[in-house]
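Exercise (ungraded).
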Amino acid sequence: MTNQAAASVNISESSSNLGKSLKLKTKATLLAIAIGVIPVLAVGATAYYFANKSITKQLLELKETQTAELQDKVSRFMKEKLGDIKLMADLNVFTNPNATPEQKAATLESIKSAKGIYDSIAVFDLKGEPIAQTKEGKKLGNHLSRTYIQDALKVNGAILSQPTISKTQGTFSIYAASTIKDKTTGKPVALIRARLPVAALKEAIQNYETEGQQFYLINEADEAFLGAEEELKMQNAASGETTTNTSGYQAVLSEQIFPDLKSIKSVEEVSSIVTTNQINQTKQLLSYAPPSKLEGLQDLNWKAILVRDAELAFATQRQLGLTIAVGLGITTLLVGAIATYLVNQATKPLIEVVAGVKKIGGGDLDTRLAVTSQDELGELNTNINLMTKQIQGSLEEQKVLAEQQRQEKEKLEIAIFTLLEEVSDATDGDLTVRANLDSMELSTVADLFNAIITSLQDIAIEAKQSTSQVGLSLKQNEEEIRLLAEQAIAETKEAQETLRSVQQMSQSIQAVAENAGQAEKITDDTYNTIVSSTQNMDSTVKSILELRTTVGETAKKMKRLGESSLKISQVVSFIEEIALKTNVLSINASVEAGRAGEYGQGFTIVAEQVGALAEQSAAATKEIANIVSAIQAETQEVNRAMESGTTQVVETTRLVESTKQSLGLVLEKSQEVNQLMESISQSTVSQASTSQTITNLMQKIAELSATTSQSSTKVAQSIGETAQVAQKLESTVAQFKVAESV
Amino acid sequence: MSSPASRIQANLTELFEANIAPGNAYIKFQLNSEITALLSMAQVQKSLIAKAEQITPLPSMPRSVIGMINSGDRVFCVFDLAKLLGLSSELTNSQQYQIIVLQTVNEPSIFIGLAISQLQGIIRFTRDKVQSSVDDVHPSLSSCLAGVLPEADNVIPILELERLLKLFATISPN
């Protein structure tokens, strides 16, 4: 009950948001403080806002008025100086051409000492050459080039210059210059100028510079030429110069100091702004007055600025804010204290109730809450006490029931223990034990147990017998299986060797196939060669036959030649005979002529000549005979040669014929060889593929036998393991103790 | 120039020029195939060609005696000159003989037939061309030599009938 309550509280707590998780007391306190403080805060803030606004407005108006005054004062000061120069220009001593420079100088000196603020007054002729000057300072040079001289000549009257650096003295000054006019003609006869140090102007407006307040004057070029000395000095120091020697005066633009000035300058009326001074980095209230126009004064275009440190200017507002803040703080604290006290008083009875319920939830059921009042809290406390009492009663009933159950359980435990005691030997394998059937609670169990033990005993006996048989047969089988495994391994080795030889065989068959292919090619070439040889042989035979015919014809011709030469030789021998007879006749004629004596002398001559002729003829015929016989001999030789040639030709023809026949045979044979080679090549190719197939088959066989070998090895191992298991089983079964009778 | 036909042509022109060379005439002939010889025409009666059957061989006579011949109403003996001079003869068993017929000057004058290998004709030269040197002549001829006629490259022996006749004396029946 209490746990459930706690769980519900937890659920409500975890599901609540921040507002709900806060304690009731805190919530009430916060609410009370809020009701007390918020109106006070609102009133305070509103008051501060309006007061602040009003005060600021007054302050700004004051400052703007002061600035306008400053501007006015400066203008008046400058107008006075313009009046001074006009007065000086009208003096007779300067207009009178007879007056000596010494008189003029004396006059100038007296004016200077009377006025006291000019540091130099001088008179120049129209060419700018100095005529007279006050004693102090350097001797002046030609001044015609000066801007203010030029300006004075231009207007033919009095002018004021912008603040500038004196070229002669090097001081920061304002010049008042004017033409000196002839009294009668009104034409300029000379020039006069007075130098006014800017410091003198500063002195005139010195009272505007107070604690936390500073004025600035700005010329028409927007340069601040008068103002906080340390700021301008700082600018000068940056250029490495001192303020006393102002020749190093450097123009400082007003916007360099106050960048926000630009925004109010365009308004062209007196206005104010809160801005930051860029030089000393302080927040300042700045009032600005635009250039003012004054009757009788040229437009100098000078602007006046009055600044006041914001800290000082807004001190009143700050004090007001502080006062309001302190008042608010005190009010809040007071309200908070009162609220806390009231809330404490209101929530005290509730807290007490909560503490009591917590205690009951923690299990202290003897706790009772005090009923002090008759309101809703009192009723709540009474009901809580009632509830606690009821819970206490039900708890005691439960205690009695638990005691009964415990006793029964103990009894059962004892019975079980006894039974276990009786049958404990069975766990060690003794199957002869029997449980006692005395126990009431466990008699059924014991009976069942006894039946189980009996059947177990039967099983154990059977198991013993079986295991011994298994062991025996395993021992027998183990040896055989081991042999089988060894054989399988040997087979695998053989198969692998066979595979190797088959692979070698396959490779050699491959090589044979390649060789056969080459041989086929070579044979083909040979066949082609033989075919061409046969053709050559045919043409050779033809040539030889032609040769034979030629030789035969030649032999016939030679024979005819021999016959002809024989005839010639016959003719020659005939001629020879004639020649011989002629010779004989001539000799005889000569002899007869000699016998005739003187008369036969002429005949003798003829006879002798005829003889000579005959002799010559004989010689000629002899030569012919020689030639013919030579011809005959040669013819005979040729004949012989012809004959042998013919024989050789015949022989050659025969040889060529037989060669041709042989070639034909060779051709046939080579054709056959070619066919054979082709078939060999084809056969070897098919053999190669077959042997490849065989190799693959052998590989598979080798793999299979390897697998078989592994399997048989595994079988052997398994058998060994089985044997071990059987042995273990036998020893385990042997632990069972069984009755001798069974 | 050297061909026989051209030589015949040269001789034909000479034939009809009626000039006779100075000197004595000699008959020129070949003893055998190697030796050419000369005989003075003074004793030559005639020359003849006789067939073998016209000559009657004489029995029991040396080989140099061919036989007896009847010619021009005269019978005379024919000798193989080469054999007579002890040289090798080409006339043995020939079909016909060329014979120079000579008549001795001394009384009683007789006819002698000398069979030679080949008659070559008659040449004439003066006696001053004849030299007596016998150095280049075959030694068998030296006994019946009258002199030699120098030719272009060798010498031709000139035989003398009187010295030949002395050789006949040596002939006697076998």
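Further reading is listed at the end of the chapter. For now, observe: Chain B has a mean pLDDT of 84. The first strand of chain B starts at residue 24 and ends at 30.
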